[in-house]
């Protein structure tokens, strides 16, 4: 008797069709979810929330885009249990809704605070987009892994239960009679191993690119995309750019430890033209977290000085960027700690100033010495200037605060008041002779109102001050522009005085 053949649909013989279909379903779910999440009502609201944490708009937009990319991948994997499609769909949304807009924005000409065009560096833009792409894929990958895990917990059990009930009552199948089928898995294992190796190398490449993205979050997504303005030089005997160098000095006040600092020497310093010249000095304090090089890389202090010197807007000056990091686990606040073990303030105002005056051709008096800083450095600059008005006559506080806070000061309320500029300025008549530059951004929620209150206090005390505000957040873009303006605000005394020798100890 001829055996009856059982009909099986063609699609059941094609083992690739179902996974491909599910891949596209997962891709579409993540894609549509991403477009929904990137609507202005969601994306803008999340960005605004991040800005309230003192982030600037550009960093907030990037972080919001990465979070929404991860969320789109979560939804795609949660509803389909397919990770690769979810990763691809979420990444495509990131590219379409964030990265393309970012690139278009950066192609618009950028100027410094003086209106000079800063040329775009194409290689830097390409590298930045690669880093952003890597961050987006990693965010989507993490999201898809979370989504797949949530699928196993919340979706698979009820789905399996419904499937079994359907098979038992509708298709009249005896579930207890189901058996497993033998199959050859050697080829699958080999293919799986190859896929794993490929995935491993891809992940290594993504992590390598992502590991270079620190400046996107610490400084700004557009950090290092534009080079210094091409303004030329009027004197062929003097280079157009100054010289920066990272050095170390041994500090007796800080336990005889080596302390790093960065110094900028103006264009004429190492030339025949400037060999007999002496220069005013500005000390620039970094924020927290921070390091001496921040003012050069992120704050463009040397670039601004070069441009302003070359265009005859300011006199040549020396810039000193010290290291204000203290013991691990607590910020130094650029102050003398309450327990007396960490006299950062004295190190800067006494030890470092003396060292710089001894080893460089400075004009060693308070009229030709300024101190400035951003955020924690803005607080530190004002606090140090008030305590040492005989050392610094010019002070620049950008995005700073004016009341001592934190564990570094210890339990004494009197000592906290002594280190609170908003209180101490009224107690120091000599400090009221300082020249103050107060800068902040209108969206710097944490510090803007404090700056306005401090401005009211110094105004009532008839302090010579200038307050500069602009649209933006707690960001390097604001501090860079305001430091540029502060350089032009400082009006040093006569620069061509006779050299003063400072004896080395």
Explain what the structure shows.
The protein is α/β, with parallel strands linked by helices. The protein folds into two domains: 13-174 and 188-218, no CATH class; 243-489, Rossmann fold. It is built from 16 helices and ten strands. The chain has helices at 10-13, 17-37, 40-51, 57-80, 83-106, 122-169, 186-210, 214-218, 294-297, 301-310, 344-359, 376-387, 413-418, 421-424, 448-460, 476-489; strands at 110-111, 117-118, 243-251, 257-265, 281-285, 318-322, 369-374, 394-398, 435-441, 464-470. It has an eight-stranded mixed β-sheet, with helices on both faces. A two-stranded antiparallel sheet has the order 1-2. It starts with 9 loop residues before the first helix and ends in a 16-residue tail after the last helix. Mean pLDDT is 89; it is low at 183-189. It comes from Dictyobacter vulcani. One of its GO terms (molecular function) is acyltransferase activity, transferring groups other than amino-acyl groups. This is Esterase.
| Assigned CATH class of the largest domain | Alpha Beta
- Classify the helix fraction into a percent range: 40-55%
Helix count, DSSP H or I runs of 4 or more residues = 16
Mean pLDDT over the full residue set? 89
Give the domain tally. Answer: 2
Strand content: 5-15%
Shape: elongated
| CATH homologous superfamily identity of the largest domain | Alpha/Beta hydrolase fold, catalytic domain
Could you tell me the CATH topology label of the largest domain. Rossmann fold
Please provide the ordered H/E string of secondary-structure elements. HHHHHEEHHHEEEHHEHEHEHHEHEH
Straight-line distance between termini? 114 Å
What structural class results from the helix and strand content?
alpha/beta
Rg, Cα atoms, Å: 31 Å
Question: Can you name the CATH architecture of the largest domain?
Answer: 3-Layer(aba) Sandwich
Largest sheet: 8 strands, mixed
In the predicted model, the low-confidence regions spanning at least 5 consecutive residues are 183-189
Strand order of the largest sheet: 3-4-6-5-7-8-9-10
Number of strands: 10
């Amino acid at each position: 008797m001829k055996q009856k053949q059982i009909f099986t649909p063609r699609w059941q013989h094609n083992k690739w069709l179902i996974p491909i279909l599910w891949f596209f379903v997962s891709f579409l779910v993540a894609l549509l979810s991403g477009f929904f999440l990137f609507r202005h009502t969601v994306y803008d609201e999340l960005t605004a929330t991040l800005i309230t944490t003192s982030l600037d708009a550009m960093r907030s937009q990037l972080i919001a885009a990465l979070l929404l990319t991860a969320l789109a991948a979560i939804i795609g994997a949660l509803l389909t249990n397919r990770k690769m499609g979810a990763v691809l769909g979420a990444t495509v949304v990131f590219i379409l809704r964030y990265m393309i807009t970012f690139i278009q924005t950066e192609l618009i000409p950028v100027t410094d605070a003086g209106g000079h065009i800063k040329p775009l560096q194409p290689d830097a833009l390409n590298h930045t987009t690669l880093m952003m792409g890597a961050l987006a894929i990693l965010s989507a990958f993490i999201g898809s892994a979370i989504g797949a895990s949530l699928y196993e917990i919340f979706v698979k059990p009820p789905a399996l239960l419904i499937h079994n009930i359907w098979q038992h009552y509708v298709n009249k199948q005896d579930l207890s009679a189901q058996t497993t089928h033998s199959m050859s898995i050697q080829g699958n294992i080999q293919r799986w191993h190859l896929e794993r190796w490929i995935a491993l190398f891809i992940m290594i490449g993504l992590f390598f690119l992502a590991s270079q993205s620190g400046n996107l979050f610490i400084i700004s997504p557009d950090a290092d995309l534009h080079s210094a303005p091409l303004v030329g030089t009027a004197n062929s005997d003097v280079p157009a750019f100054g010289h920066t160098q990272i050095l170390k000095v041994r500090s007796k006040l800080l336990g005889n430890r080596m302390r790093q600092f960065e110094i900028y020497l103006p264009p004429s310093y190492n030339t025949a033209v400037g060999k007999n010249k002496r220069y005013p000095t500005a000390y620039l304090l970094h924020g927290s977290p921070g390091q001496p090089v921040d003012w050069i890389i992120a704050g463009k202090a040397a670039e601004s000085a070069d441009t302003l010197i070359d265009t005859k807007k300011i006199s040549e000056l020396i810039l000193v960027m010290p290291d204000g990091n203290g013991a691990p686990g607590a910020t130094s606040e650029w102050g003398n700690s309450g327990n007396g073990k960490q006299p950062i303030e004295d190190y800067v105002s006494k030890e470092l100033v003396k060292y710089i005056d001894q080893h460089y051709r400075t004009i060693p008096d308070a009229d030709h010495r300024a101190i400035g800083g951003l955020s924690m450095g803005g607080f530190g600059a004002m606090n140090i200037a008030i305590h040492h008005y005989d050392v610094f006559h010019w002070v620049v506080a950008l995005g700073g605060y004016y009341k001592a806070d934190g564990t570094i000061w210890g339990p004494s309320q009197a000592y906290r008041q002594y280190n609170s500029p908003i209180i101490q300025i009224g107690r120091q008549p000599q400090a009221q002779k300082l020249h103050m530059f107060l800068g902040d951004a209108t969206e710097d929620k944490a510090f803007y109102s404090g700056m306005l209150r401090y401005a009211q206090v110094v105004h009532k005390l008839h302090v010579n001050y200038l307050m500069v505000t602009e649209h933006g957040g707690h960001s390097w873009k604001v501090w860079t522009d305001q430091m540029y303006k502060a350089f032009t605000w400082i009006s040093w005394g006569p620069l061509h005085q006779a050299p003063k020798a400072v004896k080395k100890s």
